[in-house]
Amino acid sequence: MSTTTSPEVLSFEEALERFDPALGLEVHVELNTATKMFCGCPTEFGAEPNTQVCPVCLGLPGAMPVVNEKAVESAIRIGLALNCRIAPWCRFARKNYFYPDMPKNFQTSQYDEPIAFDGWTEVEIDDGQGGLERHRIEIERAHMEEDTGKSLHVGGATGRIHGADHSLVDYNRAGIPLIEIVTKPIMGTREKAPLVAKAYVAHLRELLLGLGVSDVRMEQGSLRCDVNLSLSPAGAGTLGTRTETKNVNSLRSVERAVRYEIGRQAAILSAGGSIVQETRHWHEDTGVTTSGREKSDAEDYRYFPEPDLVPVAPAAEWVEELRGALPEPPRVHRARLQEAWGFSDLEMRDTVGAGALLLVEQTVAAGASPQSARKWWLSDMARRANEQGVELDALGVTPADVARVQALVDEGRINDKLARQVFDGVLAGEGTPDEVVTARGLEVVSDDGALSAAVDTAIAAHPEVADKIRDGKVAAAGALIGAVMKEMRGQADAGRVRELILEKLG
């Protein structure tokens, strides 16, 4: 690293006055196949450590791998959806490097012969004027490989190896099928670079979910993004030395990591320093990156063809059959949903921008109206996710939960205020919405006897308001309704309370 003294981070605005950013995004997608890439071990997430392993994925001598056909099919479908060319013949290679959680000391991957290459896709971001602007992202390649195991560093404060007492290794993940999707350099985005990066990963997630090839749960690591970023002098049109921020695991963090690296690199370059080509770690809690290791070039990995696997040669007829069975593209899907739901352009843009489109769609499928589903996900759920620093789909409330809560509101059993308490209970692990309503006693009181008594109390406590209502100022009833709701802890049927007030006051 440069020893030049400089501010740690330049402001985003000042950085862009001096430099142009270039992005490169590498997205690793865990496929949802039933078994691993080269063996028959199951791929269930969350199993007991080292219970889903065999001689093949542990790299034991004499064990022979066999390619997972379903993983090859998924790779082809991903390539086609990204407008890639599909290789008529490709093969695997050994990528040699040491990691303690990689049992073979090499990763079976693809090097110069990927299964899909030379593609493109488009993303849309807010243009700042109430509309959308479209950015074309060129795809360098989408290739097949296997995942590594997972190291668990115990005893430290950060979960990283520095400061830990000891480390454990879980090889359950070793051999899980991965597709790595690599973009070509994305240039010319300027101040929109963080938004374009976030929009691209969100777009990929939507596309992959539509294909049904992965659950793309970023919080579980089934979709991970490595953010490459470099700066060059403004207007130069060249590429600078890049850094690679590894395993960024949320849409929010992708945007923040790009923004931070722009400021950090700009500070170093402005002070006369130079950027080291290295991997960096993203820290979600502090919003900064720290140095990892100097980045190896391809020759350092000593790639050579995998001798234990035959080449993959998908028949042209099979590729065309898979192309014909692709689902509708995300943009077409969104347009169809917008028309069906009756959303305005602004409502749909905000839904997509919040990462809530799939959640709203699933909530509607579970029985809620589109507007009520959108209301909950973009207001109450979005606030809670923001407070917890997680994506909406990692919040712990499911679309089925939201649909059921709305059904309870529609049935008159709870109101919106009580519904928020129901969500509190669901998030606290107290059970289903119905169980929370029962356990917390949240159901709306519609018994006329209890309501009538509460109305009498409110009228007696506010005689001046009662007089206004008797004089024909019906709008004043709101104050008495509020008093009754307060006394009954929000559990009164507001409509019935209003009827009783007007009946009693003529």
Automatic annotation (TrEMBL):
Q: Does the keyword ATP-binding apply?
A: yes
List, for all copies, the residue spans of the domain called Asn/Gln amidotransferase.
358-505
Q: State any single GO MF term.
A: transferase activity
Instruction: Return the Pfam families for the record.
Output: GatB_N, GatB_Yqey
Reactions listed under catalytic activity: L-aspartyl-tRNA(Asn) + L-glutamine + ATP + H2O = L-asparaginyl-tRNA(Asn) + L-glutamate + ADP + phosphate + 2 H(+); L-glutamyl-tRNA(Gln) + L-glutamine + ATP + H2O = L-glutaminyl-tRNA(Gln) + L-glutamate + ADP + phosphate + H(+)
In the Enzyme Commission scheme, what number(s) does this protein have? 6.3.5.-
Q: Which UniProt keywords apply?
A: ATP-binding, Ligase, Nucleotide-binding, Protein biosynthesis, Transferase
Catalytic class of the enzyme: ligase
Q: Which GO terms describe its biological process?
A: glutaminyl-tRNAGln biosynthesis via transamidation; translation
Subunit record text: Heterotrimer of A, B and C subunits.
Which NCBIfam families does UniProt cross-reference here?
gatB (TIGR00133), PRK05477.1-2 (NF004012), PRK05477.1-3 (NF004013), PRK05477.1-4 (NF004014)
PANTHER family in the cross-refs: GLUTAMYL-TRNA GLN AMIDOTRANSFERASE SUBUNIT B MITOCHONDRIAL AND PROKARYOTIC PET112-RELATED, GLUTAMYL-TRNA(GLN) AMIDOTRANSFERASE SUBUNIT B, MITOCHONDRIAL
Concerning its family, UniProt says: Belongs to the GatB/GatE family. GatB subfamily.
Q: What does this protein do?
A: Allows the formation of correctly charged Asn-tRNA(Asn) or Gln-tRNA(Gln) through the transamidation of misacylated Asp-tRNA(Asn) or Glu-tRNA(Gln) in organisms which lack either or both of asparaginyl-tRNA or glutaminyl-tRNA synthetases. The reaction takes place in the presence of glutamine and ATP through an activated phospho-Asp-tRNA(Asn) or phospho-Glu-tRNA(Gln).
Q: What is this protein called?
A: Aspartyl/glutamyl-tRNA(Asn/Gln) amidotransferase subunit B
* Source organism of this protein record: Nocardioides mesophilus
Q: Which gene encodes it?
A: gatB
